[in-house]
Amino acid sequence: MRLLFFATxxxxxxxxxxxxxxxxxxxxxxxxKETGELLIYATxxxxxxxxxxxxxxxGEFDFYIPIEYAAETFQISMIGYESFVAPxxxxxxxxxxxxxxxxxxxxxxxxxxxxxxxxxFKIAINRITENYPMKPVEMEGFYRDVKMVGGxxxxxxxxxxxxxxxxxxxPKDYTKVRERVAIKEIRKSYDYGFAYAKYFEEYxxxxxxxxxxxxxxxxxxxxxxxxxxxxxxxxVGSDNKxxxxxxxxxxxxxxxxxxxxxxxxxxxxxxxxxxxxxxIYNYKRNRKLLNNVMRLDKLIEFEPHNGKLYLKYxxxxxxxxxxxxxxxxxxxxxxxxxxxxxxxxxxxxxxxxSSARKxxxxxxxxxxxxxxxxxxxxxxxxxxxxxxKQIVRDLExxxxxxxxxxxx
Length: 408
Hints:
Layout: H1 15-20, E1 23-32, E2 43-46, E3 52-54, E4 60-66, E5 73-77, E6 84-87, H2 88-91, E7 96-99, H3 117-126, H4 128-131, E8 137-149, E9 152-165, E10 180-188, H5 205-210, H6 214-217, H7 224-229, E11 231-236, E12 242-250, E13 253-259, E14 266-273, E15 281-284, E16 289-305, E17 308-324, E18 330-346, H8 373-377, H9 389-395, H10 401-407
Parallel strand pairs: 1-7
Antiparallel strand pairs: 1-4, 2-3, 2-5, 5-6, 8-9, 8-18, 9-10, 11-12, 12-13, 13-14, 14-16, 15-16, 16-17, 17-18
């Protein structure tokens, strides 16, 4: 059942030295210029080019730039802030990127129209085929999932993937994934696939995460009450551009949808459901276990490229309490954290993913490739620091994490 998101590079260096340097690395953290607050999930990339990353849960990022883009413009953007813009060669010298809050743009800009929040959202849905890609696109991405059982992190899985997406046409079945995925590289911690299979589904969690793109799959709540609860206001996007914010703020139900007032494209969706105390819904996992879903959180973000909005980032988190049906008492508490970052878009000559290359439907934890250490050391992904000390400490109870990757 599914419910309704440093060294400075020198241009005049000699040719041999230039040839040796394959990538430029820009690393640092993103903060609010006035308060020093860490800014998470800020978009990091090159202006006008479909490569990039995001800042992690500590506001930090590593961005590896191919040397041929040394003359391009580096940019960090985030809703509510003015963008940080600098030449790549200058951005290399920074370790902290301070964003200034945008000036408030109020009602005289777009609030005077007569559209209700529900009207705006319906227009946005109706314009999906205008605002999102309607021809094939190839995307390079990074997938991660972390599982927690009884308050302890028990597994980590990361994969570099290629996604072939045909278009954003309304699907006939929103429960069936339409993208074709190929795994380039994959690495895993100690194999808990069998030990905790009774708590975590054995289907492909990456496919499940792709289905969480409710814009593509049109898995919206269409009940009249939902539209009645929607409210609207104007907020500041990046660089002082106004946005519609369509929202619901109810106990245990939080929804925020950021919409471009010119195109009605949905740029970002944040959703939280459940108070963590009472189950949202439940179902029997097997004869002995009842799964109570207590809380889910979802974040989906898109970014513009060549006049269309492309998927940038999806993040979900589930909290579950498992009940022993024989005793009626809690058996275990689990959490699942998932995220997918798209860090390159090819909308000019996308390669079809053949059946031979296509990811298998069964769980990623059972799909194997030899661990490519060199690849991961140079891969442009979310910086490793989201794996905080507690995650690493828990996982390394079974040995060094690098050794676990090599063995699994």
